[in-house]
Design brief:
mainly alpha; signal; odorant binding; 12 helices; secreted; 7 strands; about 240 residues; PBP/GOBP; disulfide bond; 2 domains; Recoverin, domain 1
């Protein structure tokens, strides 16, 4: 069985447990300034689509659904005493988007960027986590399978059972999440990265982290080691 045919099933299974410029493992972090630099190289004097290009480089834009605000908002920091930045940003978007045709994706992206710059907060100059796309996730799965000597038949079986059939399957899941930067080698979750990668699931960040910490505490009481079901349990419950 060819590895390439298995990746679709693996991606589907992983999506059930968890749907800059620097790299550690397969982590990518970029700043908005870096995205601007890259787009200046790509667009060749087409400034009207600059903001859309930047959001695409940061994997924070989809032409159908628009801005992915959880990852994009990481590039702006509101003043600690500012309690109205979110409402102002939303009002800015409402006022300006009403005049833009539905298919004018470049204009829409420009409005998003301007409203965030004007209303959300100061630009963050340090690289922020870029959500991992399916292509890199596929590569991560294949890398871990090779490192752990998991054969194609095993991969197919693990995927169909959501990686919860044996210590070997759970160790593969552990490898994938560690290389994604979602967990440390000791099994500690990185809650900020998980929130960005999981997409928030309609839960605000404070609630997400509170629920995640409670889950970690319960898992620790049960005494799981790093290669059994602790990571799988955590991802199922939190993501």
């Amino acid at each position: 069985m060819n590895y390439q045919y298995l990746t679709t099933g693996l991606l589907w299974a992983l999506s059930l447990v968890f749907p800059g410029e620097s790299t550690r493992g397969n982590i990518v972090e970029k700043s908005l300034q870096r995205a601007t630099f890259e787009c200046n190289q790509y667009l060749n004097a087409r400034p009207q689509c600059q903001a859309r290009c930047e959001a695409l480089v940061l994997r924070s834009w989809n032409d159908s659904s628009g801005l992915q605000y959880i990852s994009f908002s990481r590039h702006f920091r509101p003043d600690r005493n500012d309690v109205t930045y979110l409402n102002r940003t939303l009002q800015c978007l409402d006022d300006r988007m009403a005049k833009v045709p539905c298919q004018a994706v470049c204009a829409k992206a420009s409005i998003y960027k301007q409203c965030y710059l004007e209303q959300w907060g100061n630009l963050v100059r340090t690289p922020q986590l870029v959500p991992m796309p399916k292509l890199i996730l596929t590569n991560t799965i294949l890398q871990c399978a090779q490192m752990l000597q998991v054969n194609p038949q095993e991969m197919d079986y693990f995927a169909r059972n959501k990686f919860d059939v044996s210590d070997r399957s759970r160790c593969l899941l552990r490898c994938i999440t560690v290389r994604q930067g979602l967990f440390s080698a000791a099994g500690e979750p990185n809650l900020e990265r998980l929130y960005v990668q999981c997409g928030g699931y309609k839960v605000d960040e404070a609630s997400f982290k509170h629920n995640a910490r409670a889950c970690v505490d319960r898992i620790r009481i049960q005494g799981y080691d790093s290669c059994i079901s602790a990571i799988g349990d955590f991802l199922h419950e939190v993501c």
